[in-house]
Amino acid sequence: MEIRFGPVSCDACLDNGIIPSVGHTGSCFDNAAAESWNATFKKELINLRVWTGLQQVKRAVFEYIEVYYNRRRIQKSIGYLTPSEYELGFDNGMTLTA
Q1: Contact 63, 71 (CB under 8 A)
Q2: How far apart (Å, rounded) are the C-alpha atoms in residues 20 and 11?
Q3: Quick one: the chain helix, strand, coil %, rounded to 5?
Q4: I want to staple 46 with a disulfide (CB 3.0 to 4.6 A). Which of 3, 42, 68, 69 is the partner?
Q5: Closest CA to 36 of 49, 53, 23, 26
Q6: Rounded to whole angstroms, how far apart are CA atoms 76 and 16?
Q7: 36/25 Cα distance (integer angstroms)
């Protein structure tokens, strides 16, 4: 089985009662961050290989988000910290300076 992302998976979502949207119709600003993340996610993980099954995709997505993206990948928008580092600082009262 091959897992594909794009219009075909959008139809599969709709067929199963899932609305594949991250924003409101007519507003290009409310979902810009989500669209940017989706583009990065596809470029760095999804489009790099042919997926053979749902469990393989689930494991890879979990590892990408929980191990790599949140703990190792620095983010310019949060002061060149990882999301985990930023969250720890936020919880401890840190303020982000420009």
Answers
A1: no
A2: 9
A3: 55, 5, 40
A4: 42
A5: 23
A6: 37
A7: 17
Q: How far apart are CA 6 and CA 51, in angstroms?
A: 14
Of 85, 79, 42, 31, which is closest to residue 64 (Cα–Cα)?
42
pLDDT in tens, 10-27: 777 778 777 666 656 666
Sequential DSSP letters for 53-97: -HHHHHHHHHIIIIIIITTT--BGGGTSB-HHHHHHHHHTT----
Amino acid type, 74: I
